[in-house]
């Protein structure tokens, strides 16, 4: 009896280690992760109406709803994170409009990132602040409603006093415009003898807002150290003066694998049908001939069969100019995940699932 028990125990210990054991094959199948490295993926998120504070990195990581930084962090987490790991084959491009700033997050280079929104927001903040300190940018906004030069109606300057007065008037108008965005119908001029003046309550509100922002800037500066010593996190890159047209041209380049560019739209073709279309798939099965050479995105081309680029809008959707630029490109194809409008982060997860199944 004792001999029988020993034989059974020995069989239980040895059987899973044998190459023909069903358990070993099942385990290998279940934990197979080759699909994550089967193809290169670029995810482009078009974020509109981004405030200047967010573009400069001055936002509170404890209140990500302000400025909708939470949307950016969720997109990064959905694009890069898998269970106990990061997709090394994926890069995320967060395009901040109207500032034409693109935050590139490379999964192949990223380090010290946790799958929580606050840590991701801190990395975004460090990257933006470090880049702003190294490359200071002057005010070049093309969406200004008021002339910032202090010019008169004829476009000429009078004297220095008029310039200072016009600049102060413009500053007061900007301050008043920010405070009265939610108060529709209120007169812009409180005191007719002092154009651009603010009421007492508005002055108090503006003063409180300004003090809160100054305190936040001091807190950020203390936490990150001096501006000269601050460095962007590993894998985070900032591209300035980056337009959608320029980004499309770079993604269509040969160095990125000649893969499809898919624009997510409720009215597009079903994504599952597009990926399973043999004629469509064959046109993008070319491999990069530059074997052993890394392309400009920092990904080794020898491990990538093809590149798939996904373009999505933010919580606002696509702007009219975005749709016009994308419609003119022959490389862009509109695809859909269904008739319902989903969250951007949800769309990224679902599209990853489809690509993993096709890999």
From TrEMBL:
Keyword Cytoplasm: yes
Database matches in InterPro entries: Alpha/beta_knot_MTases (IPR029028), TrmY (IPR007158), tRNA_m1G_MTases_N (IPR029026)
Region annotation Disordered: where it falls in the sequence: 136-207
Annotated GO MF terms: S-adenosylmethionine-dependent methyltransferase activity; tRNA methyltransferase activity
Keyword Phosphoprotein appears in the UniProt entry: no
Keywords: Cytoplasm, Methyltransferase, S-adenosyl-L-methionine, Signal, Transferase
Matches recorded under Pfam families: Methyltrn_RNA_2
Highest taxon of the lineage: Eukaryota
Signal peptide positions on this chain: 1-19
Gene3D superfamilies assigned: 3.40.1280.10
GO biological process: tRNA methylation
Record field: compositional bias (Basic and acidic residues): 144-157, 166-175
SUPFAM superfamilies, sorted: alpha/beta knot (SSF75217)
Residue ranges crossing the lipid bilayer per the database entry: none
The name this protein goes by in its record: Uncharacterized protein
Organism in which the protein naturally occurs: Chaetoceros debilis
């Amino acid at each position: 009896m004792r001999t029988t028990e020993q034989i059974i125990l020995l069989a239980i210990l040895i059987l899973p280690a044998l190459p023909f054991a069903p358990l070993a094959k099942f385990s290998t199948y279940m934990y197979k992760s080759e699909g994550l490295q089967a193809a290169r993926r670029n995810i482009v998120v078009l974020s509109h109406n981004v405030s200047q504070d967010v573009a400069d990195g001055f936002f509170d990581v404890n209140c990500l709803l302000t400025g909708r930084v939470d949307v950016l962090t969720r997109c990064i987490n959905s694009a890069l994170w898998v269970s106990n790991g990061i997709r090394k084959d994926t890069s995320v491009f967060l395009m901040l409009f109207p500032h034409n700033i693109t935050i590139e997050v490379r999964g192949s280079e990223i380090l010290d990132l946790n799958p929580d929104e606050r840590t991701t927001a801190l990395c975004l903040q460090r990257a933006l602040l470090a880049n702003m300190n190294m490359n200071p940018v002057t005010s070049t906004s093309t969406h200004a409603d008021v002339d910032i030069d202090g010019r008169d109606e004829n476009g000429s300057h009078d004297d220095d006093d008029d310039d200072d007065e016009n600049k102060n008037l413009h500053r007061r108008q900007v301050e008043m415009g920010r405070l009265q965005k939610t108060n529709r119908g209120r007169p812009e001029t409180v005191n007719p003898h002092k154009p651009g003046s603010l009421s007492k309550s508005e002055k108090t509100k503006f003063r409180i807002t300004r003090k809160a922002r100054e305190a936040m800037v001091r807190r950020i500066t203390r936490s990150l150290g001096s501006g000269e010593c601050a460095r962007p996190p590993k894998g985070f890159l900032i591209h300035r003066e980056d337009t959608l047209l320029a980004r499309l041209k770079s993604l269509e380049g040969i160095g990125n694998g000649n893969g499809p560019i898919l624009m997510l739209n409720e009215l597009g073709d079903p994504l599952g049908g597009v990926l399973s279309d043999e004629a469509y798939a064959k046109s993008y099965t070319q491999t990069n001939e530059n074997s052993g050479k890394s392309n400009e995105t920092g990904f080794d081309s020898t491990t990538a069969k093809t590149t798939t680029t996904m373009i999505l809008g933010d919580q606002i959707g696509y702007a009219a100019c975005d749709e016009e630029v994308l419609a003119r490109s022959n490389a862009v194809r509109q695809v859909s995940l269904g008739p319902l409008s989903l969250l951007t982060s949800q769309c990224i997860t679902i599209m990853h699932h489809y690509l993993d199944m096709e890999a």
